[in-house]
Amino acid sequence: MIxxxxxxxxxxxxxxxxDVMQRAFDAGVTHMVFPNVDLTTIEPMQQxxxxxPEQVSMAMGFHPTEVKEDWRDCVAQCMDVLGDGRGYVAVxxxxxxxxxxxxxxxxxxxxxxxxxxxxxxxxLPVIIHCREGLEQTLEVLEGHRDAxxxxxxxxxxxxxxxxxxRVGDYYFGINGVVTFKNCHVRDAIPEITLDRLVLExxxxxxxxxxxxxxxNETSYIAHTAAHIAxxxxxxxxxxxxxxxxxxxxxxxxG
Length: 254
Ligand SMILES: [Zn+2]
Hints:
There is one protein chain. The chain is of the alpha/beta class. It has a single domain (2-251), classed as Alpha-Beta Barrel (TIM Barrel), CATH 3.20.20.140. The protein contains 9 helices and 8 strands. The protein has helices at 17-26, 42-51, 71-81, 105-122, 134-142, 158-165, 189-192, 221-232, 236-251; strands at 2-3, 31-35, 56-60, 90-97, 126-131, 149-152, 171-174, 197-199. It has an 8-stranded parallel sheet, with helices on both faces. Helix 5 links the parallel strand 5 and strand 6 (149-152). Helix 4 packs across helix 5 and helix 8 crosses helix 9. The protein binds zinc ion. Zinc ion binds at residues 5, 7, 35, 93, 202.
């Protein structure tokens, strides 16, 4: 399995990071993608990734919830880091988040637009964080029809999948939210198809059942895979193979 979105470099893992990494490998995770958040997370992310060069890839970008007055400088710095030769596999995580605060809506759209443009220039996929901002996200993507992207932590409906696909042939990152009661994203899975579905945890957030509410970690991805398999009436091993293929294709992992 590949965890296409995990933040194991964050302080929540300071006490037991090596154990958390080992548990992920023991659970069958062969590779992980670390997406950046803001300027403070770049160094810890690079340090942890350097310890596991075979198993970890990084994405570089500036997260929408961090877009404030100084966003131009922050985005510019992240885009500079993209060129540091460390082999980033994507631009991310970037996007639109109007759930907590709409103050910087216009700036979030500009920051997202600039980062998608850079991804297209470099031929890299984009890891999109989209919360309460599908309209704005699609508006930006419409300006970059050749962008490749994954809607990370997707929790929408089959109708949302349809609407998103009218703009581009994107991937969808499914995490522990799919195991929550009353979450209808599972109904969108047949529409997404496993060829466009990638597994993720978004650790330390969004732990799947039976760990809901606790700190999430990459090893828990097995619960998400099992849940998807049960929902589709498939073998967990097949979901593993198919979603691993999708992740390799999206991020061009060897
Ligand atoms: Zn994230």
